[in-house]
Amino acid sequence: MKVLLVNGSPRPKGDTFRALSVVEQSLLERGVETEWFQIGPDPVRPCIDCRRCQSDSRCVFRDDKCYELTEAILRCDGVVVGTPTYFAGPNGSLCALLDRVFYSASDNGRLMDGKPAAGVAVCWRSGTTAALDRLNKYFTFSGMPVVGSVYWNNVLRGEEGFESDSFGIETLKELGCRMAELVKKLAR
Prior knowledge:
Number of helices: 5
Radius of gyration: 15 Å
Low-confidence stretches: none
Order of helices and strands: EHEHEEHEHEH
Largest sheet: 6 strands, mixed
CATH topology: Rossmann fold
Structural class: alpha/beta
Helix content: 40-55%
Oligomer: single chain
């Protein structure tokens, strides 16, 4: 069993990475492997509604990370998408990428149907629930069960970083536990 951790931040080792690392530790402690996908700072094309993905469930554009992310999600048993929160929403490049990944994979054959998914949002003060709502819409549109925790899957970044948000960290640990439980149950 393997869960894909998608770092939707352009910063490879920033707060989003560190938040996903908390989830990862819980997964690993429960015998679930992880794989990482880093969106990075490179430009991402938006969907142009050409509908050519209808023939093979893959976006026609192969010059950015869309195809690579689709394949990574498909080879894993679950996915956790992390994002920094900018103006009460996920990173714009991440949204452009997820628009294409989920639209193309859901349009012909519902490739991700039944695969557990969760979003994780990191912010300085507020906006994570709106960011999580946007991420959850990709999952529910694709027939993916959304994994929750004991609160919203977010962590607040204070002056010293998010390590001062002990409740947020515990929430992410519990998210990892619940994701591990669900992928194991579905694997039976």
